[in-house]
Specification:
Helix content is about 55%, strand content about 10%. The chain is built from 12 helices and 7 strands. α2 crosses α4, α2 packs across α5 (about 60-65) and α6 runs antiparallel to α7. The relative contact order is 0.11.
Length: about 290
């Protein structure tokens, strides 16, 4: 008798995977990371392809699905098919256009064609960001920013641009803001004074900067809050996060866009500034009543 497929949403499944991640064997952790990072393609991926990507045997992929209550991997795929059927078509069409451009038309493509494809990829990413927007998580993130005594922001390599922008924006508020830039390799020193009541905003994506992980551990040790902006609930920094916001970036010609991350950082600042202005706005005095003869 077949085991009935669990009735579960993609988000619920990812949350279960994230909760069990630390206890999974090494091979199954690789599969878990792949599933979380490739939600939009899992529905059409073959077991053999996933196994090859994760450097595990195909049986490990099946075993992974069974460990979460599915009779096999195809049953787990059905969860993703149900959730992403309507969204998959435009994504696949876009990917096919890129393959055609790079493959058969690369010699005839103009630089304008390349630029247009990259812009289209960024625009598609913004659509996905809007579709996956987490109102509760966003509000929690803004609340952390509002309550923090001092806000430390860290992001290395590709994430440094977004971290620098967020610091620039936050400096237009009354908050004390520190950019942890690691100048001279002094990451530990720059975040060393963080404490209870402070906030670390950590921006990091696969393969997750070692320096950012160090800062997150220091923040946790000193009882500070952490707002994590990352691409996966399975990020090694997730366990240190007070609040976590996930953001996916599209990849065109092997280059990952920064559009979604910058947009999210701008949205956080605008929302925070809006709340700050509301809180300091002085009540308008009552209009005096004019006396008439």
């Amino acid at each position: 008798m077949d085991t009935p497929m669990p009735t579960i949403s993609v988000d619920e499944l990812i949350q279960r995977i994230a909760a069990a991640y630390d206890s999974l064997p090494r091979q199954l952790k690789s599969v878990a990371t792949y599933i979380e990072q490739h939600r939009s393609s899992v529905m059409v991926d073959r077991v053999s392809d996933i196994a090859a990507h994760c450097n595990v045997h195909a049986s490990a992929v099946v075993r992974f699905a069974q460990s979460f209550g599915f009779s096999g991997f195809s049953d787990m795929q059905e969860v993703f098919r149900t959730a992403y059927t309507q969204q998959a078509a435009p994504t696949q069409n876009y990917q096919q256009r890129i393959r055609n451009l790079i493959g058969g038309k690369s010699k005839n493509a103009s630089v304008a064609d390349v630029g247009r494809e990259f812009i289209d990829g960024s625009r598609s990413g913004l659509d996905e960001l809007a579709a996956s927007f987490d109102p509760a998580g966003f509000e929690a993130a803004v609340e952390l920013l509002l309550k923090a005594k001092t806000i430390y922001v860290v992001g290395v390599r590709r994430s440094f641009t977004s971290a620098s922008y967020l610091v620039y924006a936050l400096q237009h508020t009354t908050k004390h803001v520190v950019l942890v830039n690691g100048l001279g390799g002094m990451y530990r020193d720059q975040v060393g004074n963080i404490g209870k009541g402070d906030l670390l905003v950590a921006i990091t994506f696969l393969p997750y900067g070692r320096e950012t992980q160090v800062c997150a551990r220091i923040a946790r040790h000193h009882h500070a809050s952490t707002l994590l902006i990352t691409d996966s609930q399975l990020s090694p920094l997730a366990r240190h996060a007070t609040t976590l916001l996930t953001v996916k970036e599209g990849s065109v010609f092997g280059f990952r866009s920064l559009t979604n991350t910058m947009c999210l950082c701008q949205a956080l600042f605008i929302a925070m500034a809006y709340k700050l202005e509301l809180s300091i706005e002085e009540p308008k005095p009552n209009r005096p009543i004019e006396e008439h003869d």
